[in-house]
Write a structure and sequence with these properties.
Elements: E1 2-6, E2 9-11, E3 17-24, E4 33-38, E5 45-50, E6 56-58, E7 66-71, E8 76-81, E9 90-98, E10 101-104, E11 108-112
Parallel strand pairs: 2-11
Antiparallel strand pairs: 1-3, 3-8, 4-5, 4-9, 5-6, 7-8, 9-10, 9-11
Amino acid sequence: VQLVESGGGLVQPGGSLRLSCAASGFTFSDYALSWHRQAPGKVRESVAFISTGGATTYQNSVRGRFTISRDNAKNSVYLQMNNLKPEDTAVYYCNMFWRGSSVWGQGTQVTVSS
């Protein structure tokens, strides 16, 4: 089971980024997935969640700016981030639960700065 994130980078405040998480080693459509982030010196926090049926939930601070989606044909989950703010700066991780264990990707750095 493997999750590989991509799409991070440096963006100015108000800009946009689209993160991708490519999954392998399991039947992707059978599992819910989520995005989390960890800023320097802070605990890792949940950002967005998508169920197998496509239902979504968001952290209050990103609701209305971020959109999580999935493409079961491509075994991928995405995080579209708009109107980015400096406080969104963090390493972003893809996550799922596999047979009771939490599986994480390696993370992708997002830096929002002018």
